[in-house]
Amino acid sequence: MGAGFCFSKENMHGRLACRLVKEFNSGEKGQLNHFNEELLNEVAKECSENFLVLQSLIRKMQEEGLDFQTTRNADHYGALINHLSLIRNKRCLLAYVYNRAEMIQNLAWTVGLRLFELPEEIQEKLSHPEKEYFKKHSSALESYMSKVDLDLNVDMVPPKDPYIKVRVLDDVGEGIVVSDKAANFARHSMHFLKRTDAELYISRGLMEELTG
């Protein structure tokens, strides 16, 4: 997603929406910025103002008995400017929300299906509606996988070996059950685990795969 449609000068119409899209594009690829609720609300407010002015100018021309389709006066061009501003602002809002939603969907595949599994620094960047969206998206995935009896959230790349060697990076806890066996994952300890057992801990940054 680009900011190509934010081509106008930094005038009053569309300036805030252009900032919103540029802010999204300024983040690292695949990384979320903090949800800018304040700026989004300002753009939505501008949309409402554009619509009210547009309605007022069209009504004024109608009351004067002028044909809006053919008349070319100040009211006509004022209405046109507000109409175009309204359309572009809405496009910017949709682009901002849609692209963030796509990234949030990807979190369910790359990090985990539970909100608490997301690192705190990611959770802090989500708005409340985005957190609810993540929960509902994850719930839909879990429901589908349960019906087809297949875990689609593991082995995104076909593994060469079902077992991998891992090192524990942070305390996971004692008596953790993996593959029906209890294990103690002390910090810096190394284990030979099934890939499906280890992937959850690797995605959460609690373990790392040892290669070579």
From TrEMBL:
Matches recorded under PANTHER family: DNA REPLICATION COMPLEX GINS PROTEIN PSF1 (PTHR12914:SF2), PARTNER OF SLD5 (PTHR12914)
Compartment(s): Nucleus
Organism listed in the record: Dipteronia dyeriana
Protein name: GINS subunit domain-containing protein
GO CC annotation: GINS complex
Residues covered by the GINS subunit domain: 75-148
Family affiliation: Belongs to the GINS1/PSF1 family.
SUPFAM superfamilies associated with the record: GINS helical bundle-like
Residue ranges annotated for the DNA replication complex GINS protein PSF1 C-terminal domain, each copy included: 160-211
Annotated GO biological process: DNA strand elongation involved in mitotic DNA replication
